[in-house]
Design a protein that fits this description.
Blueprint: E1 4-13, E2 39-48, E3 53-55, H1 65-76, E4 84-91, E5 94-101, E6 105-112, E7 118-126, E8 129-130, E9 138-140, E10 145-151, E11 157-164, E12 168-171, E13 175-176
Antiparallel strand pairs: 1-2, 2-3, 4-5, 5-6, 6-10, 7-8, 7-9, 7-11, 11-12, 11-13
Length: 178
């Protein structure tokens, strides 16, 4: 069964009807500056593992993600279809992120933009407390990326934690699970 990511697509319509690539973050149209002669329209889409793009909303194939999941699970005879949930934590020197799949697995990652090299460990926190043991310690320097994968993290929502040696702990927001 295909795993689904919910994405928002920002489409800019010009006289030549050129389309921009999908954005990975939601950019509200009210906050977007519109160059003269252009209009901004937001379209919610799903991108499946099969690289199929499914439009959601009043003019889409499905009203919302839940409707798509229900129909897809019924067609496949599988109730174990889920979306990816994400939670973010923005630090002055980088971005901490958790990506979950049905809250059964999670990847916690840190993308370090600046600052000195640090030693970190990751773990996952759920509604009922810690949903994992800490990862091994790893180093990450400016411009670097590191992550840890966790399985068996079943909860109704999860958040990622990064323990930085000598600096404390940092948490993402909760990632919803569907």
């Amino acid at each position: 069964m295909s795993l689904i990511k919910t994405l928002a697509r920002r489409v800019t319509v010009t006289a030549t009807a050129a389309l921009l690539l999908p954005a990975l973050a939601v950019v509200p149209a009210a906050n977007a500056a519109e160059p003269p002669g252009e209009a901004v329209e937001e379209v919610e889409i799903l991108v499946t593992n099969d690289h199929e793009i499914v439009e959601l909303g009043a003019e889409g194939e499905y009203e919302d993600v839940e409707e798509y999941l229900e129909e897809t699970a019924e067609e496949a005879g599988d109730s174990d279809v889920s979306t990816l949930g994400t939670g973010m934590g923005y630090l002055s020197s980088g971005t901490l992120k958790i990506v979950t799949s049905g809250c059964r697995t999670a990847t916690v990652s840190y993308n370090k933009r600046s600052g000195s090299t640090i030693s970190v460990r990751f773990r996952v926190y759920g509604d009922g407390g810690w949903a994992s043991t800490p990862s091994s310690t790893r180093s990450v320097s400016s411009g670097g990326y590191t992550s840890a994968y966790f399985s068996g993290t079943k909860n109704s929502r999860l958040r990622g934690e990064m323990q930085v040696s000598g600096q404390g702990n940092f948490l993402t927001s909760y990632a919803p699970c569907r």
